[in-house]
Amino acid sequence: MSRRSVVFLILSALLLTGFSVALSRRDSRDWRATRSRRIFPFPWQDIASIRINRPGRQELHFSREPGGEWRIVLEDGIADTLDTGAVEELAALATLTWRDPRPGRNAPDPETAVTMTASSQFGGTVSLAFGNLEDNLRSATIDGDQSLVYGVSQDLLTFLDWPSHRFRKYYLASVAGGTDPGKIVLQGDPGNPDLTITLERDQQGWALRSPVAWPADDARLDHLLRWLDRLRGESIVAESVEDPAEYGFDHPSASVEAWYDTPLGRIHRRIEFGKGDGEDGVYARVADRSPVFVLPVQTLGEISLTTARVEPETWVNFFRRRNLNQFNQKRPQQVTVEQLLPKPVTLVIDQDRATGRWSGTLTADGQTRTFMVDPPDATDRTRPLTALFSGLASLRIKEFLADVPPGPETLEWTAYPAWRIGLTFDDGTSAPELTLYADDAKGTLAHSQPYQEGTTGPTTTTPLLDPRDQSGIAFSLGGNPAVMQTYDGLAYFLCLPPYRYQSRQMLDLSIGDWRRVEQTIEGDSITFIRPEGEVNEQWWRQDSPSEPLMDGNNRFVTMLLTLSQLRSDGFVSDVDGDIAEFGLDQPEITAIVYSSPEPGGEDDDSPTRLFELALGKIADKEGRRYARLNETGPVFLVPAEVGAALGERYE
Predict the structure, then answer these.
(1) CB–CB of 636/504 below 8 Å?
(2) Tell me: the pLDDT tens digits for 563-589?
């Protein structure tokens, strides 16, 4: 062979080797590119039907309407909702990928292969055949093409070997997506309408609608929702019911209905419970569905369904809220306190959003006055508004005694609505109106310790007693009565006389606006003025203008500061008639303050008259005095230092 031939052969061999390597690398790249391809050709949300044929076993057929819930369709036209876990397993088909293409090897045996046909709602169809398990892989072919066999992970195909009943062991009440119901009806005895509880959710939260309107107990309602969500049959004892009496469904022992508002519309579930299975279970079924399940009998006890017939009164009140918590996690913006007995008085306390200050408007006998109110977040919890809000947030029911308005024929010991309390929150919503009932037409309430010590206070009586000899206070919430469990002082704070809500800080005026003070001490009058326009803003006695009072006279400065910082030691009475009891018919000391050096008028409506303070007789051994502003009440106590400062004659 010539050298040229040898060189030619060598070059040819090199070219063939290079071409072979290139082809091999290209095939390798193609294989690596295809090994991650999904075996399922269209998205899961587009699938409308899946059929699984397992030789020697019942065919499984799953279907759903577009956007609807999955159902399993079995023989004889039975169709039931799929178990949530089964739906999740089927959804894993969308992530099914092959791991090891095996051309021409290990193709599934047509006689033993499990075939699955999936159809898209848009018309596409794919048929998969699965062989035996080998190294945690199952061989698979697509649309009958055995020229290429894939290895598919068994972990995503466990449902292929499930028994058919496992697909049907579903949650009886919950719906897809974990949607909570908006309405629930519990029947402790479907044959007895008095043993029916209706719960419904609105913007205010969950509440009973029947047998009485009342806020629902949050903890028990949460437990009920969880109970519904996990309510699941342990086993199926019958695919369909020919004789309802066989399982006790002709006269169900109890039932639960739930309505769910979903994007696809309202879904309704009615679960009926029949008789016991003779062991520790109870038969159950979903209305309009065929199979009969067995549930543990203690399942019904979790929400007290088993006590309904034994203790009907207790069961009817089972879901009522006892800790009323009027605030419901909201901040009060306004509170209305109406005293109905012994005379109508209305107090509206609200907060100014701009300044954050609280003020009260009191209306009685056609007269209206406005005053400052201590804020509810004050550190002193004995302050009226703080105590009222604390009391409203702490209300707890001890016992429900009636579901009709209290009166002589229902609750003989409490027949008269005496107080109403309403709350409006900062989001504009309102709490149910609270009404407290008195023992008589005079508005006699339960005994409690007074808010502040004084010579007079609220009416003191013996505690109200209910027929079972238990103390309590009758009230209604949104018109529905009950009896609340009280702690010491709660009754009093809920029924506090409206005038006691006035702030301890009696005045909200700047001393810089004062120009004239008329002081009267046991009939002797002294007038102090501050002329306008003077540079040093000096005060003078009107009868002796040559002697200024602000230079080295700390007693006069103390008197002005005492007036401007006037505070109450406690409110005594909202008297509207005889005030001689407090010595205020002939006050020992008075001070009238004007915003002008000239009085501008002697009546209370004078545009320059700011206020009048009257001090009556000494109230106690500490030297505190009774006091009153503007001759309109209420009567309050001031420290002895106030009387001492205003009683200074400056002679």
Answers:
(1) no
(2) 999 998 888 888 766 788 899 999 999
